[in-house]
Every structure is written in structure tokens, then in C-alpha cells.
User: What shape does this take?
Amino acid sequence: MTDDLVKADDALTICAISLLAAVLADVLHEGVGHALIAMLIGAQSGNLSTVAWSSTFDSRLVQAGGTLVNLAAGAILWFALTRVREASIETRYFLLIACLFNLFDGTGYFFFSGVTNFGDWAGVIAGMHPYWVWRTLLFVVGVVTYYGAVLVAGLGFAKYLGVSVKNPRLLRLTLLPYLTAIAVIGISGLFNPIGIQLVWLSALPASAGAHSGMLWFRYYIPRSIVASGSAEPISRSYRWILTAAPVCLLFVSVLGRGINLSR
Assistant: This one.
């Protein structure tokens, strides 16, 4: 029965749902967390792309905004998931993957900046003393909160999708989103107006690094978290596929190249 469900899960639909989830997390981080907050609190203009918000105006709140919005979105998406038990498996899967992308992006940034002294949270703590204490705090907060996101992943798949951490389906349902996010963020980043270095410094660490928990969270889930409910396959859904196609095109060709915003 499990092998039949693995085969029944439609890869194209999984990729389409994952693409929409990845785009949502990215737009929330850059567009809402950085650009919108900056424009609301003082920026007169700036350039928004899939990998960066660039403006002469900056503040600690703008630097922190991307992460904070991702974390807030993750919480909202999780709440929505807990309230739609009767929704289709595709809708529940989207809510869970979007939730995890946002949580992994948000919590992973604490760890990333603490270790590398680069990125948004390195900017947030710049000039704060003693600096090594703040960097250590970022690292610790990153480890603790990222593990919390890992637990959410295990609980979400088990409780709301009926897929246990030992189920062979889990690899397909997590690997494809991971690779899809890397592809769409990486390709869109190639066109950004600042330079290709942002692909290596921002786009790939954010997708390949932060989302890596999708690949190994199963090894850290307590045995008390077990699958509940009946297992359902993710079927071919042209609604999700036809929604993802134009969104991907706009994300890469328009936002990837960057758009200028001004008051």
C-alpha cells in the first residue's frame, strides 16, 4: 500500500505546490519584511529583487524585518493548517510546505548570521557590545529555534498528512520541494541587478542551506510523534500547475530582474 502511494504522488503537482510555497516565502522576506517596512518607516526609493532589497535607507528594523515576517507567516500558516483538516491533501501539503519554508528561512537566518557574521542579523547586531556575546546568542537562538522548526515538520507530516517519518513517501514529499526551491530562487537570482555574487552569498544559502532541514528532520523526530489519519496520494492537479506556471514566469522574469519602488 505504501509503495502504491509513493508512485501515486504526482511529481509535477508536488513541484508546482513547492514552487508557490518557495515564492511566497521569498516575497514575504524581501518584499514585505524588507521593502515594505523600509518604505513605511522612511525609505524614499529602492530596488526589490528575489535576492535583495537595496536602498540608501536602512535600519535595524529593516534588517530584521525579513526574518520576523517569515516567522510570523510560518505561525499563521501553521494555524491555518490546523483549521483545515477537511481540505484537500494538496491544500494541506501547500500550507505545510509554505509554513516550513518560512520557519526554516527565519530560524536559519539566526544561525547563519551567528556563524558567518554576514547577512541580515549581522547587520542587526552591528555595533552592539560585547559583539561576541551577540553573535553567540544568535547562534544559540538559531540552533534552538531551528530544532523547533524540525519538530513542526515532523508533527505536520504525521498529523496533517498522515505520513510518518519512516514512510518511504516522505523522501519524495520533502526532496522535491527542497530541489524546487533551490531551482526557482537560484535561477531568478541570476538576473538580479546587483550582481551574480548575491546568488552565492544570499540565494543559495537561503534555499539550499536554510531548507536543508527538509532532508534530515526525520532523524530528529521523537518516537511519540506518529502518523494519524488516512494516507492520501497527491494527485495530478492542473489548478496548482496552471497557477504555478505564470507565478514562476513573473517571479523569474520580473522580480528576478528587480523592480524600482519609490514614494
Remarks:
- The first strand starts at residue 45 and ends at 48.
- The two ends are 58 Å apart (CA to CA).
- Residues 2-262 form one domain.
- Residues 11-41 form the longest helix (31 residues).
